[in-house]
Amino acid sequence: MRKSHPIRRVVLATAATVSGVVLLLSLKPSSDPASASAAGAAPSAAAAGQESPQGGTGAAGTTTVDGDATQTQYGVVQVRLTVAGGKITQAQAIQAPKGGTSDQKTALSVPQLNKETVAAQSANIDSVSGATYTSTGYKQSLQSALDKLKEASASSGSSSGSASSGSSSSGSAQAQAKTVTGQVAQTQYGPVQVRITVSGGKITKAEAVQAPKGGTSDQKTALSVPKLNQEAVAAQSANIDSVSGATYTSTGYKQSLQSALDQAGG
To answer: What distance in Å separates the CA atoms of residue 110 and residue 64, rounded to the nearest whole number?
Structure first.
């Protein structure tokens, strides 16, 4: 039995060596670095193939313009226009009188005014019976929105013309509108200050940036200022009538208006 021990040892050693070699062969990588890099490049190539260019698809040729907020006896009225292809496609009142009976009058008049605006393609629309103040404020805000559209159109037209011809630069300068603010006129009930917009030598808009406030002055201002604004644009001068019941405000308005006209060159 003792003589067999060395043989066993040899057999066991040989078996251990073979097992170790087999284990080392099984742990060897099955792929070389070149194949590994190729496998890693495949996902990035697929991702590149799926990537698409980015770009905006906005509503081309559509413009939205908000008119000036017009103060009426019962609240503020402001009109928003949507224009496409040179035509009014939608009109809406983003501000209108609220509370009490004003809710009913607004619900009655605004949809009708919106429809008439799209149909007329201008501010030459009829007032809604029973909602005179709302209708008047609506038309004033609508006209200011139309004026802004005209100014934007004139500006874009003049800029394109100047790019093609150097001689048109003087014409584009004339087409640009300018805004002039008159001096503050102090009245018994508070200051009055008028701002006018002049384009092409004509008053396109008049507004009171300051007017008497507080107590009964609020009502008188709401009653008189919209009328004075309209008359200033219609008369193209400060020679306008005073509003009955708002003599001091009317006088201050005309004084500030005249100073604005003097600054604008008459």
So the answer is: 18
What residues contact residue 235 under an 8 Å CB cut-off, 6+ apart?
none
Q: pLDDT tens digits, residue range 231-243?
A: 999 999 999 999 9
Q: What span, in angstroms and rounded, lies between the C-alpha atoms of 121 and 91?
A: 10
Q: What is the pLDDT of residue 170?
A: 42
Is the dihedral angle over the CA atoms 165, 171, 175, 181 positive or is it negative? positive
> What's the helix, strand, coil split of the chain in %, to 5?
55, 20, 25
- Count other C-beta atoms under 10 Å from residue 25's C-beta: 8
First-to-last CA distance in the chain?
136
Q: What is the pLDDT of residues 152-210, one digit of tens each?
A: 777 766 655 554 444 444 444 445 788 999 999 999 999 999 999 998 889 999 999 99
Task: Give the rounded distance of the alpha carbon of 218 from its chain centre.
Answer: 30
Is there a contact between 87 and 121 (Cβ–Cβ < 8 Å)? yes
Check residue 106 and report its DSSP letter: H
Name the more confident of 39 and 258.
258
pLDDT in tens, 45-103: 333 333 333 333 335 578 899 999 999 888 999 999 999 988 999 999 999 999 999 89
CA distance 160 to 190: 46
Q: How many CB atoms are located within 10 Å of the residue 104 CB?
A: 11
Residue written as token pair 């043989």:
7
Q: Which residues pair with 190 in a beta bridge?
A: 187
* Spatial CB neighbours of 140, under 8 Å, sequence gap ≥ 6: 67, 68, 70, 77, 226, 229, 230
